[in-house]
Amino acid sequence: MLESEQKAKRWLGKLTRLNPASGRGNCLGKAPHKPLLLLCILDMVEAGEFASKVFTRSPGLVLRFRT
Questions:
Q1: Within the chain, where are the H helices?
Q2: Does residue 11 fall inside a structural domain?
Q3: CA gap 43, 57 in Å, rounded
Q4: Angstrom distance (rounded) from CA 32 to CA 11
Q5: Distance between alpha carbon 53 and the CA centroid of its chain, in Å?
Q6: CB contact at 8 A, 42 and 18
Q7: Domain tally for the chain?
Q8: 40: how many CB neighbours lie within 10 A of its CB?
Q9: Would 13 be classed as within a structural domain?
Q10: How far apart are the two ends of the chain, measured CA to CA in Å?
Q11: pLDDT tens sequence across 17-42
């Protein structure tokens, strides 16, 4: 298996186990927008708007998230 295929399977596994923590049951916190935030970040990475692996809240990210 190619290295890129292994990475794709690894990340797909992480995405399928993403826990948005809806706040029901014994959940301590709520994060219902976690999947949306992740999609915004992936969209920005694909557009080449992140220069490094570390990012902070930016006007571009906030705008994308709110729209």
A1: 3-16, 34-46, 59-66
A2: no
A3: 15
A4: 20
A5: 13
A6: no
A7: 1
A8: 19
A9: no
A10: 39
A11: 877 766 666 656 677 778 888 888 88
Amino acid letter, 21: A
Segment 59-66 shows an average pLDDT of: 87
Burial of 21 (C-beta count, 10 Å sphere; 0-12/13-18/19+): middle
Mean pLDDT, the chain, as a whole number?
80
Structure tokens at 39: 């999609």
| Of 31, 10, 37, 36, the residue nearest 19 (C-alpha) | 31
Q: Look-up: residue for tokens 């927008």?
A: 33
Instruction: Decide if 59 is inside a domain.
Output: yes
Residue bearing tokens 């992140």: 50
Q: Is residue 62, in this structure, part of any structural domain at all?
A: yes
pTM of the entire predicted model: 0.60
Boundaries of domain holding 41: 33-67
Residue 7 to residue 56: CA distance in whole angstroms? 24
Element of type H or E holding 26: none
